[in-house]
Every structure is written in structure tokens, then in C-alpha cells.
Design brief:
The structure holds three protein chains of three kinds. Chain A is an all-alpha fold. Helices cover 76% and strands 0% of the residues of chain A. Chain B is built from 13 helices and four strands. In chain B, a hairpin with a 5-residue loop joins strand 1 (59-61) and strand 2. The chains are: A mainly alpha, B mainly alpha, C alpha+beta. At the A-B interface, helix 2, helix 4, helix 5, helix 6 and helix 7 of A face helix 1, helix 3, helix 4, helix 5 and helix 8 of B.
């Protein structure tokens, strides 16, 4: 009887004991801290460990904090300009490196494009700090351009990845067909290539925006005085420990990232 | 007759070869032109400045930060050695050595932790049905695309003295005083394993997904046990994924800045913090530059191993 | 059939085209000095095994590739190096290559839009063409929402809409299942008849080529082996490859022993010889190969009357025919297909001594 009962469960080659529970535990560990953070951002008390009831007051406090408004606005400006520029440049670069006959120098181009992914952020940050210090000394200009340029550069590989993947998955025969139907190369690009590439471009834009919005290390090193972005502001607030206000900001930022990344995934699977 | 035909053909061929070569040249030129704007931005604001860092390692530190344009080995010298201010005796810079050691140790530990957690997770995802697989993958990647600082904050709140773990343990009467976890090396290690876990799972998943389960069927058919199959069949087959994932976690751990700063509480510095310090309070830019190049070299060597591993996998 | 094809204008002329694909490591000759003349309003098929160069030839006409040497002319005009978007030639691609982000209508009107035709004309033409391929109902569908056969029709409509001078079809039916394919074969012939456009059709399917073409070219290893009407190709193959690739053939090795104005005498063995009409070729070679279609030979138990003698080796019944394999006294095998006519069934046992009777008019001397 016992044997028969065991036989009820079909033998599975894929099964390994304990792996599923371990995986579920892993997902729980991954999400529990984030979920806790979001829950506690709705806590009405000042003590972030003790639940005292639901409230939106910390969101209100954060919203009304002029400094938070300022750094949020700056983050959005930098992320918008950097992601749009990076995506445009990455699209062009993807068109110039994908589905062509291999040419000399292609490997160098790949290396340069992916360079920000390979070099530790702290090293890039230090390099930009030194380089921009020289330019700042020479020109006397201390504006936001430095930050935008730095963000654009490290966003390029993130925008490039999905665009290139999309382009590689695209059947070149469609462009051939367009040319057969009297479309010039420019018309082919406008009517066939770009519309088909669009989900990839949008996905690249989303990723670039999220990456720029989240950056701490490079921004921390590159920014001039008074150029805090939201993440560097939050890092600075740490000296006072984690306040419920920081929790609220974190949750809001988390929400934006999750939303954008979800859109990215939906676009990618389309 | 045949003579003239040959003539026509050869001239024709010459004309064409010209046009074919010209066409190919034009294509390459267009491609390069398309890449140029991106390359300019990347060279100006990412790759190029690295060269300046290298130059700065050989300059003299300025008194208030910056550099004096004089040749000096001080930057490199100070990476591992220190000179006594009073009697000029040279000794090992034990503070730096211990930071290097801590960086390597914690990076290895966090890599192993991520591997132990990540392997079953990747296996679990890879053995789901194709429809649900993407959802699980999505769940693994979501945290990776959210702010690293926020995720570090989240971990901080869980493990601090008044955090969830300690509060629960005290409330249930397991302990009386909170276990001190925050601002220790352990918390840094845990934090890094936590934030870089997706980088472990994704390459592992990629190689487990390609696993040919007929081989495993064959092993079971030949009386292998589950443990034997795991150790002698599955793990050797997905070894490239294990190496790739480990390097992908190890590299950012080694250069981590935010996680040790937030979870180390300023006491337990890692390489990234040491570098930053030289450009802040330390005001020793050549040393900071030399440390940066050192870190860069370690990372590049690791990446080389990674790339070679990838190539072997594709062979 | 008032205008025989041979009197029509030449639509496409391939003049000693050679195409060599060169990469850093290798160089492959896809086409070797190919010359062809395709006439106006002709259904012309390029037939050959995969990799023989037929698709490359099509791509040269379309302008996707340029020949390494040689010329392509369209109504006497040299188009060799013209880009594809300037040639009044359209292609139906193997996997249709429909634009996935456009509806059926948008796909069909694409070419006309690119040609900057007035809006009203575009609408009218698209309606006409969709009618022509019987897709008028599905114009607003997304191309991913229609069946393979329908996609095929849309691809046809799209290529026909700009009214090209030549329509190129690249293995266009190979993705369809058998039944659909037969329907589309009839459909294609109808379309060609109704539009009056020259069709150049690429296929590896000999049956398709025989049933659909006005004329066809058999291509192998980058060379055109023979050009002719389907019956010319079938009945008078000039090369062994053609005889083998299209239908079945028996090959007999022989020697020319006598040759005069009217006859060629080919000796297979001391005991057996045939006299063929010498009209087809004037041969210089002494050794020749003669091709005989299996259905052109008959069997007889009166072995002494037959040209060749042997033993029945196997017999397979196919309904309309019975296939016999005879092992000849020379050691070669010879296949004969005998038609089964009720009341006149012939039956020969395995192992029985048999004679093979050959009709000199149905024998073909091959080029070496």
C-alpha cells in the first residue's frame, strides 16, 4: 500500500529535494525587506520600527519639503535629458553595429560602448571627478552639464542592450522587401526599421531613465556643491538615521522604478 | 568574337569590383558615422578620463586636494606602504592592507552566499513551465532595477537593533538584548549578497535552462541517486554559469561603495570607501587614483577570466 | 496562343552573369557564366536542387545582389547595378516577408505609396489587387491574424499592386501544405494569365516546374544545363543531371558504331544495338550514354526479339503502374513502368528471364 502511495507521485527528472523550498525562501528574503520598507512608510508614528497605524503623513511631509522637491526635480531633469540623449545615441550605434558585415574596429566600438558596465562605478566616478575638475578650473563653468554628460555616458550601454537585441531579432528580409517595393534606404528606415525597432527603443529609454534616476556613486563624486539628486540627498540624510520621511521617498521612488521596469518587460516580450 | 567577349567581361568585372569595394567602404563609413556620437560621449565622459586617472597616480598630492604637476611615486608607494612622519621609516600600511583583505574576504563571502541562495532559485525557475518562467525571472530582476540605495536601506531596517528580526526575536522571548548585526562586516556581506543576488541567478538560469535533461534521465536510468546526479552531472554541466554568476557578483562587490557605507556605519571601510576618502577628507588624489587603478586591474583580470569562460562555453 | 512565345519581346536578359561570394576564408561561385532570355508574359521557372544558384539568380534580377561579372537587362535596358528600389520588378519572398506592423491593406499599398501614386489611385488599385487574390474581405486584418495560405495571397497582392514588369517568386509555395499548394499553383497560373505579367518562378520541385511553366531552366552548381518547355525538358534531356532530376531515367552506356545522315547506331553489347534518328545531335564522341524513361520501355517474354535481356529482380505494384527492376545481362539494372490496363495485365515473375524492348524514338543521347 505504502509503495503504491509513493508511486502516485510521478518520478520527475527535474526534481531535486529542498530546491523549491530554498527558492521560495530566496524570493521571500528578496522581497521581505522591500515590502517591510513600503509598509512602514505608511506608519503614522515617528518610530519606524513600531507600527502605530496607517497614515500618509510622511508622504505629505516629504512632498512639502522644499529641499526634497528641489532634488527630485533635478533628478528628473538629469534623468530625462540623459536617457533621451543616451537612447538616441544608442539607437544610432545599434544601427551601425548590428546586422552589418563585420568590419575592422567593431570590437573596439563594442568595448567602448560596454565600458561603463565593466569599470567599477567608483573608478568611473573618480575619473570624472578629476577630469571635470580640470575643465571646471579651466572654464569656470559649474553647471549641471557635467552631471548630464556623465549620466548620458553610463546610460548608453543600458539603452544599447535592448535596442541591439531587438535589431538582431529582426528579419533583414523585411527591409529587403521594402526596397523591392520601391522604398529608398531612408524610407525603409522610417517606415520599416524604426517602427519595428520601436519597442526596443522604448525599453532602452525606460532602462536608461531608471539607471540614471537610481545612480548614487557617480553622481556623488561628479556633482558640484548644491547639485544633489534624490539618491545623493537620501544618502546624505543617513547621518540622521533613517527617518520615516526617507522611507516614504524610498517607497515612492521604488514605485516609479517598478512601474518603468514592468513596462520594459512588457515591451520586451511583445 | 570570343576575344571581344572576354574583353567586355574583364572590363565589366573591373568596373564591378570597383563598385563593390566602394559600396562596402561606404557601408563601413556610414556605420562608423552612426556610432560616432555615442563614442564621443563615452570617450569624453567615461573611457577617456580613466587615462587621466593613470596620469594622476604619478603626480604629487596638493595640500588641499588636487595635484601638483610634479612627478612622484608617492601615490603608488602609499597603496601598500607608509612613511613615518617623524623619522621617515617605511613600514607596511596595515590599515590599507586590512581594507584590501576585508574587501576580498567580504566579496568572496557574499559571492558564496549568493551562490548558495541563487543556485536552487535558478534551478527552480529553469524547471518551471515556459509560461510561468518569465514571471519568475521578472520577479528576480525587478529588485535589481530598483534603487540600490533603497534596497540597502531596506536591509538596514530589517537587521538593525530595533529592526524586524530583533523585535520579533525579543517579542517571542528567544533573546533579551538585540543581536548586533548592523554596522558589522556581516551586515555588509549580507547586504552585498542581497543586492547582487539577481546577477548570480540570471547566468545560472541561462545555463540550467540549456541543460539537457535526457542526460539526467540517463543517469537515473543507470541507478544514480539524486545527490549523485546533482554533484556529478548537473553541477559540472552548469559550471560555466556558476563561474559567470560568481564573477558577476564578485566584481561589483569588490568595488562596492554604497553598501559598505550604509551598512558598515563608517567603521568597516572597503576599497570603494577608501578611494572616495582620498578625494574627500583624505585629500590625497594620487593615492586615490592609484587605488582606483589597482581596483580596475583586479576587476579587469576577473573579467578576462569571465570572457574566457564565456568563449569556452560557446566552443 | 496566337503569339508563340518565341516571337515575344525579351523581358529579362541575363548576359553571362557570374556571381562569386567572397569572404575572408573562402570563395564560392554561386553562378557560373549564366545566360538566359526570359520573354514577355512568360511563366518561366528556374528549377534546381537547393544551393544550385537559382535564388542568387533571382536576387540578381531583383537587385539585392550585383553580379561579379556579366549584365542584367530589363527590356534592353541595363539594370545590372541599379538598386532594387528603382527596378520595376517585385518579389514574392519565400516566407512572404509581410510587414508585421501593418495591416493587409497597408502591406499591399506600401509599394504604391513609395511610388507616390495619388491616394485615389492607390485605393482603387489595392481594391483591385485584393479582389484578384480573393482577399477583399480581410484588408483590415493584421498580417499575423491570417492563415499561411492567406499570407501567401497577401504577399502576391503586395508584389502585384505596383504592376511590375516582372514578378519574381522565390520558392513561394514551399511553405504551404500539399493541398494548399496545389490550389495556389492553379491560382498562380490564373493570376499570370489575368495580369499578363512575366513570372519568374524559383522552385526545387520538379513536378511544380513541369505543371506550371511555359518554359523552364534547369540549373545545377551555378550553371544553366538546359532551357526549354516542360515537355522538351522531360522528353529530350540533354544531360544526365537533367534526365535524373526530372522524372526517372535508365542510363545505358554504348558505343557509336555507325553514323550517317539519318541514323546513329549505338552498340550496347555485341548482341544488342539500336538505331536512333540522328537529327537531335551530331556526335563526335564514340562512347555515349543513352537515357530511357521507364515508361517508354516494355517487357516481353520473347527475349530474342528484345534489345536487352535480363532477369526480373523485383516487382512493385503501384495501382496505375507496376514497376519492374530488371537485372540486365551486362549487370546494370533497368527499371520499367508498365501501365495496368484492365483485362491486359501483364505479369512477370521474379527471377524469370525477360527481354526489354526499346523504342528508338523515345531514347535520348546525352551530352557528356
Amino acid at each position: 500500500m505504502l509503495v503504491a502511495k509513493n508511486r502516485n507521485r510521478e518520478f520527475s527528472v527535474r526534481y531535486l529535494p529542498g530546491f523549491s523550498s530554498m527558492a521560495i525562501l530566496c524570493f521571500v528574503l528578496l522581497y521581505a525587506p522591500i515590502v517591510a520598507l513600503v509598509i512602514y512608510s505608511f506608519n503614522s508614528g515617528t518610530n519606524i520600527a513600531l507600527w502605530e497605524g496607517f497614515s500618509l503623513q510622511w508622504y505629505v511631509v516629504a512632498w512639502e519639503n522644499e529641499l526634497v522637491q528641489e532634488v527630485t526635480f533635478r533628478s528628473l531633469i538629469v534623468a530625462s535629458i540623459a536617457s533621451v540623449t543616451a537612447t538616441t545615441l544608442a539607437t544610432m550605434a545599434a544601427l551601425g553595429t548590428t546586422r552589418t558585415r563585420n568590419y575592422r574596429g567593431q570590437m573596439v566600438i563594442y568595448a567602448v560602448i560596454n565600458q561603463p558596465l565593466m569599470v567599477p562605478e567608483i573608478v568611473t566616478g573618480v575619473a570624472l571627478l578629476i577630469f571635470f575638475a580640470i575643465i571646471k578650473a579651466a572654464t569656470g563653468y559649474h553647471g549641471l552639464t557635467y552631471l548630464v554628460a556623465a549620466h548620458t555616458a553610463f546610460c548608453i550601454p543600458f539603452a544599447y542592450m535592448p535596442i541591439r537585441a531587438r535589431l538582431e531579432g529582426m528579419d533583414g528580409i523585411l527591409e529587403t522587401a521594402a526596397q523591392d517595393l520601391y522604398a529608398t534606404p531612408v524610407q525603409t528606415l522610417r517606415r520599416i526599421t524604426l517602427p519595428l525597432l520601436w519597442p526596443g527603443i522604448l525599453a532602452g529609454l525606460m532602462l536608461a531613465f531608471v539607471i540614471s534616476l537610481d545612480d548614487v556613486v557617480i553622481t556623488e563624486l561628479v556633482k558640484s556643491a548644491g547639485q544633489d539628486t534624490l539618491p545623493t540627498y537620501m544618502l546624505g540624510q543617513l547621518r540622521r538615521g533613517i527617518t520615516p520621511e526617507v522611507n516614504a521617498i524610498s517607497s515612492a521612488l521604488l514605485g516609479v522604478s517598478v512601474l518603468l521596469v514592468s513596462i520594459f518587460f512588457i515591451l520586451r516580450t511583445r | 568574337m570570343s576575344n571581344s567577349a572576354a574583353e567586355v567581361r574583364s572590363s565589366n568585372r573591373g568596373l564591378h569590383e570597383h563598385s563593390e569595394v566602394a559600396r562596402r567602404k561606404k557601408e563601413v563609413r556610414n556605420n562608423l558615422l552612426l556610432c560616432t556620437p555615442a563614442l564621443i560621449v563615452l570617450i569624453l565622459a567615461a573611457a577617456g578620463p580613466l587615462l587621466i586617472v593613470l596620469i594622476y597616480t604619478f603626480l604629487k598630492a596638493g595640500p588641499y586636494g588636487g595635484v601638483i604637476w610634479e612627478w612622484s611615486w608617492d601615490g603608488w608607494f602609499q597603496v601598500f606602504l607608509k612613511k613615518d612622519i617623524f623619522d621617515d621609516t617605511v613600514s607596511i600600511a596595515d590599515a590599507h592592507i586590512s581594507i584590501f583583505w576585508r574587501s576580498v574576504k567580504l566579496s568572496v563571502q557574499s559571492t558564496l552566499t549568493a551562490l548558495i541562495l541563487g543556485f536552487p532559485t535558478a534551478y527552480f525557475i529553469a524547471t518551471r513551465s515556459p509560461n510561468t518562467r518569465n514571471l519568475w525571472l521578472f520577479l528576480i530582476t525587478i529588485p535589481f532595477w530598483t534603487n540600490l540605495l533603497i534596497r540597502t536601506f531596506a536591509i538596514m531596517q530589517v537587521i538593525r537593533d530595533q529592526g524586524i528580526i530583533n523585535t520579533l526575536l525579543i517579542n517571542f522571548g528567544f533573546i533579551e538584548t538585540p543581536i548586533e548585526m548592523l554596522y558589522t562586516e556581516f551586515s555588509i556581506m549580507l547586504g552585498m549578497a542581497y543586492v547582487y543576488l539577481p546577477l548570480m541567478v540570471l547566468p545560472l538560469y541561462a545555463s540550467i535552462e540549456k541543460l539537457d535533461f535526457r542526460l539526467i534521465e540517463a543517469a537515473y536510468d543507470l541507478y544514480a541517486t539524486r545527490i549523485f546526479v546533482l554533484w556529478r552531472i548537473i553541477i559540472p554541466l552548469v559550471k560555466p554559469g556558476i563561474i559567470a554568476g560568481s564573477i558577476l557578483v564578485f566584481i561589483p562587490s569588490l568595488g562596492a561603495y554604497v553598501t559598505p557605507r550604509v551598512l558598515g556605519g563608517g567603521k568597516n571601510l572597503m576599497l570603494g570607501n577608501l578611494i572616495e576618502l582620498q578625494f574627500g577628507q583624505g585629500r590625497n588624489w594620487p593615492l586615490g587614483a592609484a587605488l582606483s587603478i589597482t581596483l580596475l586591474v583586479i576587476v579587469m583580470v576577473s573579467l578576462l577570466v569571465y570572457v574566457q569562460n564565456l568563449q569556452r562555453k560557446s566552443d | 496562343m496566337s503569339d508563340p512565345i518565341s516571337q515575344r519581346q525579351i523581358a529579362v536578359e541575363i548576359d553571362s552573369a557570374t556571381k562569386i561570394f567572397e569572404s575572408e576564408t573562402s570563395s564560392v561561385t554561386a553562378l557560373d557564366n549564366v545566360s538566359l532570355k526570359i520573354r514577355e508574359n512568360e511563366f518561366f521557372t528556374l528549377l534546381g536542387p537547393s544551393g544550385c544558384g537559382k535564388t542568387t539568380l533571382l536576387r540578381l534580377i531583383a537587385g539585392f545582389e550585383h553580379p561579379t561579372s556579366g549584365r542584367i537587362r530589363l527590356y534592353q535596358e541595363d539594370i545590372t547595378f541599379l538598386p532594387p528600389y528603382t527596378r520595376p520588378v517585385n518579389t514574392v519572398f519565400q516566407n512572404y516577408a509581410l510587414f508585421p506592423h501593418m495591416t493587409v491593406r497597408q502591406n499591399v499599398s506600401f509599394g504604391l505609396e513609395m511610388l507616390k501614386r495619388p491616394k485615389g489611385e492607390i485605393e482603387k488599385t489595392v481594391d483591385e489587387v485584393l479582389n484578384l487574390v480573393r482577399m477583399e474581405e480581410l484588408g483590415d486584418r493584421q498580417t499575423s491574424d491570417i492563415s499561411g495560405g492567406q499570407q501567401q495571397r497577401v504577399a502576391l497582392a503586395r508584389a502585384l499592386a505596383p504592376k511590375p514588369k516582372v514578378l519574381l517568386l522565390d520558392e513561394s509555395l514551399s511553405a504551404l501544405d500539399y493541398k494548399l499548394r496545389q490550389d495556389m499553383q492553379i491560382e498562380l497560373k490564373r493570376l499570370q494569365h489575368e495580369t499578363g505579367i512575366t513570372f519568374v518562378f524559383v522552385t526545387h520541385d520538379q513536378e511544380e516546374a513541369l505543371t506550371m511553366s511555359d518554359r523552364m531552366a534547369v540549373i545545377n552548381e551555378g550553371r544553366v544545363l538546359q532551357v526549354g518547355t516542360p515537355s522538351e525538358i522531360y522528353n529530350f534531356p540533354t544531360e544526365r543531371f537533367v534526365a535524373e532530376f526530372i522524372g526517372d531515367s535508365n542510363f545505358l552506356e554504348g558505343q557509336i558504331t555507325e553514323q550517317n545522315e539519318t541514323h546513329v547506331r549505338v552498340q550496347f553489347s555485341p548482341a544488342s544495338a539500336v538505331e536512333l534518328p540522328s537529327g537531335q545531335t551530331l556526335l563526335s564522341a564514340k562512347k555515349v550514354t543513352v537515357a530511357v524513361r521507364p515508361e517508354q520501355a516494355t517487357l516481353t517474354s520473347a527475349t530474342e526479339q528484345a534489345t536487352l535481356q535480363g532477369v526480373v529482380k523485383s516487382m512493385v505494384y503501384f495501382g496505375t503502374h507496376t514497376h519492374y527492376v530488371v537485372e540486365l545481362d551486362s549487370g546494370d539494372e533497368f527499371t520499367v513502368h508498365l501501365q495496368n490496363i484492365r483485362g491486359h495485365e501483364l505479369h512477370y515473375e521474379n527471377g524469370s528471364r525477360i527481354g526489354v524492348m526499346l523504342d528508338p524514338a523515345a531514347m535520348q543521347i546525352l551530352k557528356d
